[in-house]
Structures are given as structure tokens and as C-alpha cells.
Design brief:
The structure is a single chain. With 148 residues, this protein is mainly α. It has one domain (5-141). It contains seven helices and no strands. It has helices at 5-16, 19-28, 33-51, 57-70, 80-90, 101-119, 123-141. The protein is globular and about 40 Å long. The protein starts with a helix and ends in a 7-residue tail after the last helix.
Length: 148
């Protein structure tokens, strides 16, 4: 398993809001494992950029509530418990995941988008984030520990 250029293209297109490119990229992706690892790595990196070095559980709860408020027309797309738990896990909380892999993946993807907006990253910074995330994801897929 590896993170491919198609995985990166899909995530970049998603983050740009380019639905046509997302659809084209999705059709070319053969393995979803590399994409899941890439999204997870980008989510963790972004969460830590936003909240590190200090954060509280209340910070995570408020942030998820704010993201849900932005999605008020489509509340069903984001499970608030999954989003909060995934955010806390990304920030180093030792809580166990108590939701499905699909809920975790959706929460990470939606929250990643929100984090990038709140971090106000330009295209160069997003490309750098995706490069870093790809490196981390490839190490994880290879069974190597990820750097903290």
C-alpha cells in the first residue's frame, strides 16, 4: 500500500471545493487505504497546527460545535461525537474510538476542511501540508512510527 498521486489529487480537489475534479480523481483511485492514511495524517497535522501546544476538551467541543453550526443545513453529514473524539485523538488524547470507521473518516475529512479554512492557509501552505501528510502517511503504511 502506498499514497499515490491520485490520493493527493483527490484530497487537493476536495479541499479546493472542485467537485468535478473530486469525481474524476475518485474514479481513478484503486486503493482507499492510502487515501485514508493521507486524510488522517493531514487532519492530525492541521489539528495540531490549530490547537497545539495547549488545548482543552472544551476547546474541541466548541470547535466541533462551530463547524456543525456552519453545516446547519446538513447536520447529518457530521457526527458530533465522532468529530470531537477524532479531534481529541489527533491532539494526543488517549480516549478510545467508539464509532465506526466510516464516521471517523467523514469526521476527519470534514474537520480537515474546516481546520484549513480556520488556519487561513494559502495554496502553497496547503501543498506543503499535503506533502508533509503524504510523508507521514507513507511511513504509517510502511509500519514505521509517525513523528510526533
Amino acid at each position: 500500500m502506498a499514497v499515490t498521486d491520485e490520493h493527493v489529487a483527490f484530497l487537493r480537489s476536495y479541499l479546493r471545493g472542485d467537485e468535478e475534479a473530486v469525481t474524476r480523481s475518485w474514479e481513478r483511485i484503486e486503493s482507499r487505504a492510502g487515501l485514508a492514511a493521507l486524510v488522517h495524517a493531514a487532519f492530525v497535522i492541521s489539528a495540531r497546527q490549530k490547537f497545539a501546544p495547549t488545548w482543552t476538551r472544551a476547546d474541541a467541543i466548541r470547535y466541533v460545535a462551530n463547524v456543525r453550526a456552519l453545516l446547519s443545513e446538513r447536520l447529518d453529514v457530521l457526527d458530533p461525537r465522532a468529530a470531537e473524539q477524532e479531534l481529541r485523538l489527533a491532539l494526543g488524547d488517549k480516549a478510545e474510538s467508539g464509532h465506526s470507521a466510516a464516521s471517523a473518516a467523514a469526521a476527519q475529512l470534514i474537520m480537515l476542511n474546516a481546520l484549513l479554512v480556520s488556519l487561513d492557509l494559502d495554496e502553497v501552505a496547503v501543498d506543503d501540508l499535503l506533502r508533509q501528510a503524504r510523508e507521514v502517511a507513507e511511513r504509517i503504511l510502511a509500519g514505521q512510527p509517525s513523528p510526533d
